[in-house]
TrEMBL record:
PROSITE patterns: GNAT
Alphabetized GO MF terms: acyltransferase activity, transferring groups other than amino-acyl groups
UniProt-recorded name of the protein: Uncharacterized protein
Entry-linked Pfam families: Acetyltransf_1
Record-linked InterPro entries: Acyl_CoA_acyltransferase, GNAT_dom
Gene3D superfamilies reported for this sequence: 3.40.630.30
CDD domains: NAT_SF
Amino acid sequence: MPAPTVRPFHRADRDQLTDLVNAHVAAVVPGVSVSVNTVLSELERQPGEFITDPWVSERVTLVAEQRRFVVAAAHLLRYRADDEVGEGYRDSGEIDWFVCHPPASFWPDAEEAADLLMSACLAQLARWNVRVRYADVALPAPAVYGLPRNWPHIRAAYERAGFRHVGDTEVILIARVADLPEPEAGAGLTVERILGECGTRFTAYADGRALGFIEVDTSLARPERHTRAAGLADIGNLHIDPGHHGEGLEHRLLGQAADWLRLCGVDRLLAYEAATDRQALDVLAKAGFRELTRTDRGWEHRPGLPQMPGR
C-alpha cells in the first residue's frame, strides 16, 4: 500500500471530505449530518462566528490522501495582529478542525496519516509565525465543538503533536421533548413569549417582576446548511433570579418551552452546561435530560508540557 501524502484541498475532494466530517458528527449527535454545500461554505467563511470570523486573515485546508482516498483533513485559520482583533486571538493561528479515520484493520496507516497531516499543520502555523497556536474541532454541525470524548483518535493525535487541554470541559445533554415537563399554571405566575438574544424567550413574571427566563433556538436545521437536523433545537439561555432558586421555576419554564417546541415539530432538545455546575446538571437531569457527551474546550500547542491529570 502506498504511503499517505498531504496536499491542499481540491474541490474534487468535497464528497469524501463531507463523508469524513459526517462520520465524526454522527458519533456525537444522533441523526445529524451536514451537506456538501455546508462543508464547502465553511472553508470560505463562518457566518455563525460573526465576531471572530472577520478577524481571520488566511484560511488553509489540507488533506491526507492514500490510494486517492481522503483519510484525514484539517482546516487552519490565521488571525490578524491589529488592534481590532480581540486580545486572545490577536496574531494567533488555529487548527479550526481536524478529522481522520480511526485506526482499523482495513486502514492500518490511519495513525501515520493523522501524524503526517498534523506535521503539515504545524509547519503551516510555523510559516505564519504566529504568537500562539490553538486547536479546536468545531465542525459545522450543532453541538460539535471543542474536542468531544467520542473521538479518542483525534485526542491522541493532538497530544502526540504537543497540544494540551488548557480550557474548560462542558457537558452536552439531550432530551426528548416528549419527556420534558408539561406546562403548569402557577398561582400568580404568568409567562410571556418574545424574541430573545439566542432564540425564542419565555419569561416568568410574578407581580410584574421577571423571575427568570429560558430561550430556545429552533433554527439549527436551516435547509441550505443541514440536511439531517430537523426536529432539533437547543437551549440558548436558562436563567433564574438568584432569589428564586428552588421554587421549581426551571421546570415551569422548560414546560412552557416544551409546549412551544411540540407545536414547532421539534422532538429533541440540546443543552450545554459546565461540567463543574452540578446544580444546573441536576436540574436538567430531573427534567428529562441525559448526558450526550463531554467536550474539552481550549487546546494550545505546548510541546514538552505533560498532560494535566484528569484531562
